[in-house]
Amino acid sequence: MSTSTATPDASFTLDGEDVPFRPGETILQAAQRAGHYVPHLCWHPEFHPHGSCRVCTVKVNGRAGAACTVQAAAGLAVESSTDELNAHRKTLLQMLFVEGNHFCPSCEKSGNCLLQATAYEAGMEGPHFEEFYPDRPVDASHPDILLDFDRCILCELCVRASADVDGRNIFAIAGHGIDTHLVVNSPSGKLGDTDMTLADRAASICPVGVILPKRRGFAVPIGERRYDVKTVAEPGNQEAS
Ligand code: SF4
Ligand code: FES
Questions:
Q1: Residues of the chain with pLDDT under 50
Q2: How far apart are CA 138 and CA 143, in angstroms?
């Protein structure tokens, strides 16, 4: 719905609190700017919303919608932190955890991982479902970048970053349903056969531990990392890297 008639003072309520918004903002953008946390994984402020993870699902005047795609409008009553929605979010997170291999204690992204931080915030204490334990080979063919495909949550941020910012189209999503997976667009399917560099936006956008710079894994010690220091819900710490 267009918000072109919204004034700078227009607002909606989020869990009963007034949230002002600017014309064109989504509920998530306005909430975030006002310092409210709405859980999210596939949204990133630099990119058009993708609306795929559904972790940001809220109720807007009683109807479920993705906060990252629904436009803010004056007078909307938005519910986010309810028992029902938080339980659904926790289930989504548990499904993501069992779909991949997310062994946080041994992952070099631990403490900087949006999935891990979001799960902590959601109070997730275990996977609940049976793990799939996928077994996709790690791609270490690139001199500076490692790919661990088994941690991919299919947010497509790397796809968007490589296409829209880097202009290289190095990543794509292939397959359907349970076989959906990330692929590298090169003749061999290996990252070493691409012209990707560490300076590419796609090299630093991954919210989990798939796209990793080599030889830097533990430069910042565990315990001193972004989400070790502040929770993902704290203002200023809510965006993906
Ligand atoms: Fe998202 Fe990372 Fe998977 Fe790319 S590799 S789709 S950024 S989780
Ligand atoms: Fe809105 Fe993923 S953050 S659907």
A1: 1-4, 6
A2: 14
* Integer CA distances (angstroms), 132 to 55, 96, 152, 172, in order: 21, 10, 13, 22
- Write the pLDDT tens digit of every residue in 170-212: 999 999 998 999 999 999 999 999 999 999 999 999 999 999 9
State whether CATH 3.30.70.20 applies to domain 110-229. yes
Report the atom number in ligand 2 closest to the C-alpha of 155. 2
Three-state secondary-structure class, residue 119: helix
Q: State the Cα–Cα distance between residues 239 and 228, nearest whole angstrom.
A: 15
pTM of the model: 0.94
Domain ranges in the chain? 11-81, 110-229
Q: Among residues 178, 182, 162, 180, which one has the least CA distance to residue 170?
A: 162
Distance 62 CA to ligand 1 centre (A): 32
CATH architecture designation of domain 11-81: Roll (3.10)
